Amino acid sequence: MAAKGKKKRRTNDRVTLGDIAKHCEVSKATVSRVLNDRLHEFPVTEKMIQRVKSAAEELDYRPNRLARAIRSQRTHLIGLSDFHLNSIMERTPDRIAYEDQVKGEYISTITNHPKFKDYDLVIHCRDESTDQPLKPSDFKHDLLDGMVYLNPSDNHTEFLDVASKNFPIVVVGHVAAAEEKVPCVDFNNRETGKRAVEHLIEIGRRNILILIPERLKHLACLQDRLQGYHDALTQNGIQVSDKFIHHVCCTKDGIAAFFRNLPCLGEVDAIMSTTDDLAAFCIEPLTSMGYRIPEDIALIGFDNSPICQHTSPTLSSVNLIPDKQVYAAIDLLLKILNKEVPYEPGFHEIETELVIRESTVATRSDSGK
Q1: DSSP 248-289
Q2: Model-level pTM?
Q3: Cα–Cα distances in Å, from 210 out to 57, 159, 285, 299?
Q4: What is the rounded distance in angstroms from the CA atom of residue 136 to the CA atom of residue 143?
Q5: How many other C-beta atoms can be found within 10 angstroms of the C-beta atom of residue 297?
Q6: Which position among 124, 177, 247, 319 has the lowest Cβ density within 10 Å, counted as fewest Cβ atoms?
Q7: Which residues does residue 172 pair with via DSSP β-bridges, in sequence order?
Q8: What is the rounded distance in angstroms from the CA atom of residue 217 to the CA atom of residue 153?
């Protein structure tokens, strides 16, 4: 036990505010005001501000996160939440590479935001394979200042009840009525799905098959794309038929078996796939069955992932720019946390575009089918 009245020896080499104050021969309160940007509390000369900041850099001062969190009631941690992909769908090597690339772009986009320098990013994985509701504690709302929430699904909307002005969640994506409770940053998947189908109609196709990955059918974005399919057909006087709407296993063998057993395949003159990897899986079995793409069956995907440029023929697709979507989301969240804007529900739309390639370039009149 230390002798009474004797100071305890420091047990680590962390530089403290007291060290900087001693170095500059000023009070700890002055150093605290300068380094914590509380200069409005008491006037400090510009010369002293520069002196304190130079000393902090020279001594390699690092703020004590725990002390700062206790003082400000904020941790300066932001969550990036996504579901466990392995529990949702079977992934090909190309799909894994694409997802890793996109996630890397997400992280880079967030951490390179000019206002992010005062925060750190926490990767938050949520398990949506369970039938049980997610608990508030699953969202780490006691640890994080806020969250960017990726890929919401209709199966788990508990985040709508967890989000608040004290724990703001900005959603990248959309589920029904979510924009009435939280800010949602998304592409208009319904309108974009409609535009993709209208492109097929414009090149003379009318018997349009739509394919949706079985294990992703619960995602709101895919449901919106399906609704866009309905809209395009209806508004162009084409009857919607259930025989052209299918949820399929997104594997090479699964798609091959699907086409072998599809009674109406001979009627199909176009396919809208709600994901690019699913569209890519369609090419080989269709060509092996004697169908030419696009002369007999035009084919369009969704996402404009790198695989679109490496198939034969190359794939037309809808260009979604995920880094723009995530940038808009983190920009909004940081403005909310910094009290530059209020936390309000609403829908923030990100623009998309069709990218036309070889899989849809021919017109129906060119077909030999």
Answers
A1: E--SHHHHHHHHHT-TTGGG--EEEESSHHHHHHHHHHHHHT
A2: 0.65
A3: 60, 30, 16, 10
A4: 12
A5: 24
A6: 177
A7: 150, 185
A8: 9
